[in-house]
Amino acid sequence: MPDSPGGGTGAPATLRYRADAVVPCDGSGRVLRPGVVEVSGSTVTYVGPDDSRTTETGGHPVREVRVTGALLPGLVNVHCHSPMTLFRGSGENLPLDRWLKEVLWPQEAHLTQEDVYWGMTLAASELLCFGVTTTCEAYFHEDALTDAVVDAGSRAVVTPGVLQLPGTGSGDDWWEARTAEIVAFHGRRHGQEGRIEVGFAPHAAYTVPVPVLADIARAARGLDALFHIHLAETEAECTLFAAEHGQSAPALLAAAGVLDGRVLAAHSVWLSDEDMAIYERHDVAVAHCPQSNAKLASGVAPLVEFLARGIRVGLGTDGPASNNDLDLWEEIRLAAMVARIREKDAGALPAGAALDLATRGGGLALGRPDLGVLAAGSQADMMAVDLDSPAFVPLLEDGQLIEHLVWSGSSRLVTDVWVAGTRVVENGRCLTVDVERASAEVNTRARRLVQAAG
Amino acid sequence: MPDSPGGGTGAPATLRYRADAVVPCDGSGRVLRPGVVEVSGSTVTYVGPDDSRTTETGGHPVREVRVTGALLPGLVNVHCHSPMTLFRGSGENLPLDRWLKEVLWPQEAHLTQEDVYWGMTLAASELLCFGVTTTCEAYFHEDALTDAVVDAGSRAVVTPGVLQLPGTGSGDDWWEARTAEIVAFHGRRHGQEGRIEVGFAPHAAYTVPVPVLADIARAARGLDALFHIHLAETEAECTLFAAEHGQSAPALLAAAGVLDGRVLAAHSVWLSDEDMAIYERHDVAVAHCPQSNAKLASGVAPLVEFLARGIRVGLGTDGPASNNDLDLWEEIRLAAMVARIREKDAGALPAGAALDLATRGGGLALGRPDLGVLAAGSQADMMAVDLDSPAFVPLLEDGQLIEHLVWSGSSRLVTDVWVAGTRVVENGRCLTVDVERASAEVNTRARRLVQAAG
Questions:
Q1: Quick one: which of A23, A233, B27, B241 is 20 to 30 A from B346 by CA?
Q2: Contact A358/A315 with Cβ under 8 angstroms?
Q3: Nearest alpha carbon to residue B289 among B264, B258, B309, B272
Q4: pTM of the model
């Protein structure tokens, strides 16, 4: 861990990373070749061209670190159920409703805290190696999940799931108790290590009663916490919901006051114009999950229209049981491809806009302008990308670097990753997780869960 | 090159590769864990479970090679213009017709043999590292292209392009001369090193007159050579063609006798039922290019219907200017995803069927049952895939290996690659190409071409 801040003095030492290129992803579209990122403790203090920094900074000692390749902000994965590495490749080729009811939920009812710890730990090693430094996690056994994130040196918005699984929850009182449990969890762990934020994740409008959703939304608003929900994922779900309630889920939730706080709506594939207007009015952010929506045949969300309306959008891999990896680079490229198919426009979602979704856009979707960007004041979450690859050839102008990152770049080119200023991946190897141990644990536990579900 | 066949004796020594798993991709869906592949010279002589091979083979000496991970056949990329690495990231965000006319063709008119050699060489290093051992190449300056393939130790079906570019070809005689040139090229290079096959690639029905296509098809049939053409790629192209000719391109080509030989139709996105019936009757094979078709907003080809009709289908990356890499792993996964979007069916194109397209299916689409498969008599083109990755966790049954290869596998897991029995990639490093030199050449030449085109 050569780059941890030096101890002993009052203020942390400044580390000055000199890179062949810096892509700040700050909305400017600029590429600094070469570039400098300065980090003090867990925070970025300066980003600029290389030639501008030759002196000491503010009287504090400066240590120089040479980075081969390009520095980018760590990617932000805004919709994930990472511990589901335990269920990777389980129940393939089923549509969402059958997959949930026949395969997933019967196994999830048997999950233990330790299962979730190891599922999340294996996932964290994958995510970090891919350059994904923040995930927004919707899952159960939130203490174990948080332990794993803390231990892996990663960053997460942990939004504990609210859902009555067969055998683990039922009755009206259960909803209230579960909500209180998350409020207590928030008190206990929100802000831990500066890397954990806590929110709420009631599963969906078709699985959690609307009055319960309103109660949870009120609790979330009281804590200024993220309210994270699956919304309008499949056409069948939306048709059923409208038939039962006489209106769409977004309309009903808006009327019930559910959408008044910090709301993140995952999927949002099947929305009417009126639904989109509701998102716009309530500043609902979207977690766009193109690979999950394609693999499960849910459809293609109207991404271009979201962006035209100024709706905040980030990218999510969804869980590794429906994706099946946690590689956000693939989502960047796929988001552009399915947008072009949907819009019949080869100019829809240019490379810069696609990269923005996985970086700054993801941070903004979470209400976190300090994530997914390299700028003074942002979190020091970064990745170094190897530019010595045919993927970046030819490179005729600086701006082309962004085209290449999106269209021929890949997670395989990520060499080093830092979270909150600490290096967690070096030369492609995760420094914080014993991957062999985690793999063995997940294998054993996955086998037990399949057997337990019969 | 530790695994090249030992010289000196009359018959080549047999190499017995013992791998943690062998996925033969022979249509059986089986996974051998552990497994054995035996290779004599450039040919596979035996594939089976590990425990079945303990003795000498046919009196010849046997050398054992231990392979960590899974052995699969090398992937087959059935539609590519690999030297277009020279144009990677050039003219982004344009639809196909404007991209061809405004960006690409003006530069291609200035190409030299040396440009094509270096463009192909850089591409070959990428392809081999991704485990792609065969490409079907449609391009110009075919001698230089072939030199590069031979030098890189790769395998190609080289189908020289026939197209009048501004400044390089015009007039009726030109077509005849160009066809004669390809016939002579076939005589000169077909079969070279056992790794080069020669065919013909007239560009498209909307750029080459139908009588010329008929002449080329006749020449191809005379040599039993592949006739490789772009067909029904964009909706606009098909609408224009029908307005001008009163029928679809497949119908007109069938009537003109163009589809009577070994025909490979790239793209084939916009086909009517009658067009598909023509493909079926004429045994026309399809090069399905999902990423190129998505990126350029051309659409999604009716893959599931092709397969239901028994039409042969392989996967193509298309050229690196419209993809932008040559990673066939991405095409496998994308083929399944866009098929599911198109069919609204989460069970469309299961993993095994998707993998088949890039292996055995690709070989069959080229009329080459000896490619894309590990079986006695097939070419010894293989790749080793690292199984010590979270991508393969959990692994609860052998068959799940195929799900994982498709849904969480990636080119980054390819460690070693062999073509015709010779190792060309070792621990992720291409042994046959000086990648640094090739990158520098492509950078310089790309810059010159942009300037030349003004």
A1: B27
A2: yes
A3: B264
A4: 0.96
Q: Which of residues 345 through 374 in chain B touch A, CB cutoff 8 A?
A: 345-348, 350-351
Question: Is the CB of residue B361 less than 8 Å from the CB of residue B313?
Answer: yes
Low-confidence residues of chain B: pLDDT under 50: 1-9
- As given in the structure block, the two tokens for residue B122 are 């850089």
Reduced to 3 states (helix: H, G, I; strand: E, B; else coil), residue A355 is helix
Q: Tell me which DSSP letter residue A100 carries.
A: I
Indicate the angle between helix axes A328-343 and A351-358, nearest 10 degrees. Answer: 130
* Spacing of C-alpha A349 from chain mean position: 20
User: Rounded to 5 degrees, what angle do the CA atoms A413, A415, A420 make?
Assistant: 125
Are B297 and A340 within 8 A, CB to CB? Answer: yes
- Please answer yes or no on whether B403 and A340 come within 8 Å at the CB atom: no
B202, β-bridge pairs: B162
CA–CA separation, A178 and A184 (whole Å): 10
A-chain residues near B294 (CB < 8 A) = 337-338, 340-341
Encoded tokens for A173: 């009182």
* CA B268 from centre of chain: 16
Tens of each residue's pLDDT in chain A, 454 residues: 334 444 444 567 899 999 999 999 999 999 999 999 999 999 999 999 987 676 555 666 789 999 999 999 999 999 999 999 999 998 888 877 888 888 898 999 999 999 999 999 999 999 999 999 999 999 999 999 999 999 999 999 999 999 998 777 888 899 999 999 999 999 999 999 999 999 999 999 999 999 999 999 999 999 999 999 999 999 999 999 999 999 999 999 999 999 999 999 999 999 999 999 999 999 999 999 999 999 999 999 999 999 999 999 999 999 998 889 899 999 999 999 999 999 999 999 999 999 999 999 999 999 999 999 999 999 999 999 999 999 999 999 999 999 999 999 999 999 999 999 999 999 999 999 999 999 999 999 999 999 999 8
Helix, strand or coil, per DSSP, at residue B314? strand
Residues 6+ apart with CB under 8 A from B165: B105, B108, B109
Distance CA B64, CA B2 (A): 11
Question: 3-state class of B52 per DSSP?
Answer: helix
Site of tokens 């075919």: B142
Contact at CB, B350 and A291, closer than 8 angstroms: no
Structural domains in chain A, sorted by start: 14-73+371-430 (2.30.40.10), 75-365 (3.20.20.140)
The distance of A418 to chain B (nearest Cα, Å) reads 21
Residue of chain A whose Cα is closest to the Cα of B290:
A337
Distance of alpha carbon A370 from alpha carbon A363, whole angstroms = 7
B299 touches chain A (CB under 8 A): yes
Distances in Å between the alpha carbon of B423 and those of B36, B148, B158, B405, B417?
17, 17, 22, 22, 6
ipTM of the shown complex: 0.95
Angle between helices B328-343 and B400-407 (to 10 degrees): 100
Cα separation, B45 vs B379, whole angstroms = 9
Place of tokens 């097939």: B378
Tokens of B259: 């589809």
Residue A321, pLDDT score: 87
Chain B closest-CA separation from residue A320 CA (Å): 9
In B174-289, DSSP assigns E strands to 196-198, 201-202, 226-231, 262-267, 285-288
Put residue B31 in one of left, alpha, beta given phi > 0 → left and psi -120 to 50 → alpha. Answer: beta
Ramachandran region, residue A389 (left: φ > 0; alpha: ψ -120 to 50; beta: rest): beta
Q: Tokens in use for B348?
A: 């469309």
Side-chain-side CA neighbours of A135 within 13 Å: the count stands at 35
